[in-house]
Known about the structure:
Two copies of one chain form a homodimer.
Chain A: H1 4-11, H2 15-22, H3 30-43, H4 49-56, E1 61-67, H5 78-92, E2 96-102, H6 112-119, E3 123-127, H7 134-141, E4 146-149, E5 158-163, H8 165-178, E6 184-188, H9 194-209, E7 219-221, H10 226-239, E8 245-248, H11 251-264, E9 273-278, E10 291-294, H12 297-312, E11 320-323, E12 326-328
Parallel strand pairs in A: 1-2, 1-3, 3-4, 4-5, 5-11, 6-7, 6-8, 8-9, 9-10
Antiparallel strand pairs in A: 10-12
Chain A binds a DNA duplex through helix 2 and helix 4.
Amino acid sequence: MATLKDVSRASGFSITTVSRALNGYDDVNKETRDKIMSVAKELGYSPNILARSLVKKQSKTIGFLVTDLKRESVKDNFMFETLCGVSDELSELDYEFVLLSTTTSKQKNKTYGQMCAERQLDGVVIQGLKRDDPYLLEAIESKVPCVLVDIPVEGENTGYVTSNQLDSAKQAVRYLIRLGHRHIAFMNGAPHAYVSTVRYDAYRQVMQENDIDANDAYVLNGDFEETAAKDVALPFLLNHPEVTAIFCASDVMALGVLQATRELGLNVPEDLSIVGFDNILLSQYVSPTLTTVGQRPYEMGRKAAAMVVDIVDGKDVPHEAFVNNQLILRESVTKNRR
Amino acid sequence: MATLKDVSRASGFSITTVSRALNGYDDVNKETRDKIMSVAKELGYSPNILARSLVKKQSKTIGFLVTDLKRESVKDNFMFETLCGVSDELSELDYEFVLLSTTTSKQKNKTYGQMCAERQLDGVVIQGLKRDDPYLLEAIESKVPCVLVDIPVEGENTGYVTSNQLDSAKQAVRYLIRLGHRHIAFMNGAPHAYVSTVRYDAYRQVMQENDIDANDAYVLNGDFEETAAKDVALPFLLNHPEVTAIFCASDVMALGVLQATRELGLNVPEDLSIVGFDNILLSQYVSPTLTTVGQRPYEMGRKAAAMVVDIVDGKDVPHEAFVNNQLILRESVTKNRR
DNA sequence: CTTGCTTTCCGAAACGTTTCGGGTATAAAA
DNA sequence: TTTTATACCCGAAACGTTTCGGAAAGCAAG
Lengths: 338, 338
């Protein structure tokens, strides 16, 4: 591959001049610039990004750090959609984009700082970390800018983009109550996940503001997994026939509940109303279609990417951004007739 | 961030020795190696990959080139799954992985060669290119190793991994015929896509080997899109009530056909048997569930990644690999009762 | 003629590695 | 004692850029 030196030799100008010509500096004569340009094109020159990054000490690449990238996450298209958003935004901004996948165990081998340093990442957007993952703290304390999706944390070089989690979750529970439901269960996900805690808070607060006593037995744990949710829903529904509605912290778990109802011969929504969270692709294809709180991961990805390069560029921008969720009404909920 | 020079200064050994110690050369004393190791750890040293790549002239990174990475592709989880496969395999092999997304129009701005050279990619795995995309030819002729998924092309530094496309497609059509269907339509995708041509060939060959006359009117074009497929299926089904089965070149188009039947008040599979191709996630959730030819993109991703690094490493490996498809029997097909 | 300003160019150092070709002890062999 | 082998270490060049600090030439002003 042609290098600066080749162009220099072929055009008769020094390496310095060639570099300056190609980079649009103005202390180079129009004629020589044209000459250099044409020679460069002829030789098929294109700059070696590695060398450039080495001396400029910035790589023009952003990392997209994601935990537990595995085949199963296919069901949860959230990650893929934010990835698309990040990718689109970065390519518009002329940044590269490397995918960093990690697991909780891998984080012990290599520190977050090392990971960034090795690759000279200018910034990173992070998705899906757990609250107690070592990388979370490291990322916040690190000098390299990062923005988190769905984990509100502020810091010098840290930003986040999230949705109106609490409000939209409250809206979902209020919706059930307005339809006459009183015995409403809550299917929680991994307790350490940030999103779990706020969805749980929403549930509790709305119940309280409607003077419905909290019943700890109504709070289940499905660990954000379909089968786990089914397994825990089966005995619960059997033992609590008075429950007419359930709010799930994720659609995937809602699907599990749906399976449980089928096995028990219950009808949805007549016997049990279900509302999920995420608006995954499947939610509009299952039968009955799933009422759910829709997130917009693509937009979140775009905003996260945009914010991180703004921080990298030293622009003085707000370090938080919101993308509004939306309650999407479908077939899995109906009025309480009991 | 700590550099080799820092470790050198702090440990009292030369940069050369430090480098050699850290890289496991054997001409360094055990004691000094230990000393250097501990100093390096203390300083949190980790090598600058950029600098290393620059001198070694290989970056230990593989590109994953994908066309038309857009939100819509979410429905077609094929890409995402191969991505997971590639990612998993490469991380096991200690290679980096950058995602390169391109569109047909973007390919005019920057040549494939430039793209590889800039980033010093050691190799690339390519997915979803169209037969007439400029990058395809460039990739084959390029010196940097590449392996294509689902496009059989051989060359010095080129390999591919594909599935037994033709056989499995034939199997699907034979299945319909064995169930007594004679008037079988074919929903084709983008005519320029490689997969389209082979699925079409399979259809024609099986029809012929069963002495069923080819009827050009039975070949539709749904452009691999749900709505396009629906729009073309609607009038077709209306005008050809004798057709009892349809073989679709993709599940997404099969879903379109399914919609069309609903609008026409036809029952699947009683009035029309449908078989798709791809086994996308949705196919097991729609009602009726979709009989389809299942691909295994995750395995293809893994094999592709493994093959490309083998080629990079100069190993003498076969430049083709196969992952067998499988006909998955579900509800959307039944015996012809007419 | 000297001074100073523009315009246009370039040499050399720097970024953080790897690696080639030695060099200097110490120990073993002659 | 001198030679040879071995074990350990290091200087310097190289990879392909960018950029700092000038330098040469031309020209206007004093």
